[in-house]
Amino acid sequence: MNIQFHTSLFVVGFLPIYLIFGFLCVLIAIFYLGLQKIGKFVRNRTGYWHFGLFNVGLVLLVISANLENPYKNLDFYVYSEYSFVGALSALLISFLIFVFGVIKSIMK
């Protein structure tokens, strides 16, 4: 019975993170569709890279938020920092690829 409560608290506690990133995914998809409707196509390969790096950044960000308290074990703290830096790097590169693809499609 405790496992169900802990699991439900875990899901409810991190729900806003998933909702925010899900909302961003929907906005980006609508933007891609809008570009497609006006005849400015973004290459599929660029979209795949953007989607993949965005999801990798999301997963790493959630992992870094879920690691143990740094005062319990020093190794978890180091992994948490690496995961957070990796998440921010992946999200930044994903954003740059998105901007590059949009600019390239508008310039055509």
From TrEMBL:
Entry keywords, A to Z: Membrane, Transmembrane, Transmembrane helix
Record keyword Membrane present: yes
InterPro entries named in the record: Cyt_c_oxase-like_su1_sf
Gene3D superfamilies, per the entry: Cytochrome c oxidase-like, subunit I domain (1.20.210.10)
Membrane spanning residue stretches: 12-35, 47-67, 82-103
UniProt name for this protein: Uncharacterized protein
